[in-house]
Amino acid sequence: MPFIPRACPERAVCAERSRGKRVEGEPRPKGQAMKVFIEFEKKPLLFENPLDIIRVRDPNKVAQAFADIEGYLDEGRHIAGFMSYEAGYSFEQKLLIDKNYDFPLLCFGIYDKPSAKRPDSTRTSGKLDDTYINISKQEYSGNIEKIRQYIECGDVYQITYCIKKKFKFSGDAWALYNKLLEAQPVPYPAYIETDGMKILSLSPERFFLKKGGNILAEPMKGTWWRGHNILADMIERYRFSRDRKNRAENIMIADLLRNDLGRVGKNIKAPKLYRITKYRTLYQMTSIVTGKVPRDIRCYDLFAALFPSGSVTGAPKIRAMEIIKEIENEERMIYTGAIGYITPGRDMYFNIPIRTVLLRGEEGEMGIGGGIVWDSTAEGEWREGLLKAKFLADL
């Protein structure tokens, strides 16, 4: 029986699909490929050989795409893939732009049950060349000052401002992913191949985890350098834990997440604040926000409330996104979007793709962002950005 998507109450539009409706037992057309490998918390899930791919470039069609996803979930299918940062514009009329984006706003494969296996890795060495930042230091400093002026005028309290590291890459993308993961182990990594692109997400940040009627979000805001020896490292960790700027940024975003989650949930709490996690090149600060949501909440409603995470926009969110659109000189695409999966029972697990490499042919890029508040300095934020990119630069 052919799959007929349910009508979407938000917008009666047809989602841009990679092909037409699929009949049970019909062979998958050649070229219909999307591989998603997720190993959040060291639990590997490999999604291969999609039955269909839902891919959208028009923000007016995002709502219907989610309606299609709901229909496949009702059929007992699994969903895995990604959303770009710019997909967030589709959830807010104020931000909506009538255009087709070059990079997919939403790309999800429809799968039978994933396998709990990790593909073999080769030792093929890759090479990064011609690396550069997509903005001059002078222009960067000017944008930091613009953000500080917006804060001074009371438009926003904080802006997460993004620049990009660009480079040429030759070699095996899967080998590169494994090499980066070995150099900088993180809790929420993922790897995706589809549509002529590869996404290598070495993310330390969890977006949200929904299990049944329980939901947990873990916004990350706050970065600090490691010490050069044991004693120096202990001192730096202590300084980070007491740093007023980082604590102020962190609590501001935790409050934003509490408000967002309160739009669709109840019993919202923040049981853990200012948690510090150690990585090989830096420290990061996170907080935990929890709540209760309906077990069968529609995916669209949940993402409309939470996406993009306040940790990658600033506060208040909508005004922050308007300013980001004004001052950032490129679309973020996969950077600060979401990567993850949805089960037929509506359990969901997504990361925020920071420390994430996008490869298209030989062209590669990685977004670098930081939270800008009133007492931020251009020099300090520039150094923090280079620190966050260090795991790739060291390659």
Task: Pick out its properties.
single chain, 395 residues, alpha+beta, Anthranilate synthase, 10-stranded antiparallel sheet, 9-stranded antiparallel sheet, 9 helices, 19 strands, globular, disordered N terminus
What does the model show?
By secondary structure, this protein is an alpha+beta fold. The protein is built from 9 helices and 19 strands.
Give a brief rundown of this model.
This protein is of the alpha+beta class and 395 residues long.
CATH superfamily of the domain at 128-169 and 220-336 and 364-393: Anthranilate synthase
| Count of DSSP-assigned helices | 9
The gross shape turns out to be globular
The CATH class of the domain at 128-169 and 220-336 and 364-393 is: Alpha Beta
Q: Write the CATH architecture name of the domain at 128-169 and 220-336 and 364-393.
A: 4-Layer Sandwich
Low-confidence stretches at least 5 residues in length (pLDDT < 50)?
Answer: 1-31
What letter string, H or E per element, gives the SSE order? EEEHEEEHEHEEEEEHHEEHEHEEEEHH
Radius of gyration (CA) equals 20 Å
Report mean pLDDT, rounded to a whole number: 90
Oligomer designation: single chain
Record field, number of beta strands: 19
Q: Which structural class should the secondary elements be placed in?
A: alpha+beta
The largest β sheet comes out as:
10 strands, antiparallel
